[in-house]
Amino acid sequence: MTARIKGGQAATVVVPLLAAVMLVLTWGRDLPGVMVGIAGVVLAGAVLAAVHHAEVVAHKVGEPYGALVLAVAVTIIEVALIVTLMMDGGEKSATLARDTVFAAVMITLNGIVGLCLLLGALRHRVAVFNPEGTGAAFATVATLAGLSLVLPTFTEGSPGPAFTTGQLVFAAVASLALYGLFIATQTSRHRDYFLPVTPEGEVISSEDEHAEPPSSKVAWRSVGLLLVSLIAVVGLAKAVSPAIESGVSAAGLDASVVGIIIALLVLLPESIAAARAARRDRVQTSLNLGLGSAMASIGLTIPAVTIASIWMDGPLHLGLGGVHMVLLALTFVVGILTVIPGRSTPLQGGVHLSLLAAYIALAVSP
């Protein structure tokens, strides 16, 4: 048993380093089919390693800091990838930020949240969470999405679903301010609102966990390996994206399907970590991951693309179309009705997952 544990620990160290080497070898190259398959296997290993190290860090710092660390780390690297692709130019760069952010919002709010509510309710009959903290997170995400993805469709200062420079700067400042205010609320004065609760509504603090937290040395090592794993996940996702684009094109699917697939790959570490938390009856931790990722995707991407637009040629389209606005509105209406009771049956999880399925189906067949 001891040898098995040591072997597993060694794998969580070796795999991120192997993924980093694979990223260096494949970056900027056209990969043959065999290399795409190898890169995909290494990418999957990096995802599992990232989940392990995120859980180590979360156990050391406690909730809700653990969920915040993973959400922010993934989003910062994702934003860097978006900005890099936008700087490459081309026709797709005008809508790249919008499509990527919206895909992340739909996957997190309906995919991660729905899956975790379903898992938690199936395993424990009812999934229990804190409505105060979850409601505050939903309200923040709804405001950020409305300001950044809906308003540009209706403004008149710039042609197309785009902001003027002044409007874009306002959206960036507002996004950062709201995100910063939420983090302050989550981690200081109202931290209890974002901790897991028992069916009776009692807060489960990190001190209630039976396992001893890791040492500072182990935690800092996991922080470093977590960052290496996440960089490798995003980088390898970009490396295999040409093969994905070719497959999507050969299948006659819309180009937006590529963005969904890449977003699913990038968000895999958070999805697996959230599902594991839900199975341990820590549904609030799962919701912190899902909602925190959606919030970070908007709150960090919009300021980043605002700065990048200084060097970009061509328009920056942020406004959603009618179909996507309907899906977004349905997501928030359903989310509000899910949050209010503070508990969920499998039905609510299924409803959120059906909205994600509708989004993917309409992307495949607009």
UniProtKB/TrEMBL annotation:
GO terms for cellular component: plasma membrane. It is a multi-pass membrane protein. It comes from the Bacteria. It is found in: Membrane. InterPro entries: Alkaline_pH_Ca-Antiporter, NaCa_Exmemb. Residues 35-187, 222-363 form the Sodium/calcium exchanger membrane region domain. Coiled coil: none annotated. This is Ionic transporter y4hA. The lineage of its organism: Bacteria, Bacillati, Actinomycetota, Actinomycetes, Kitasatosporales.
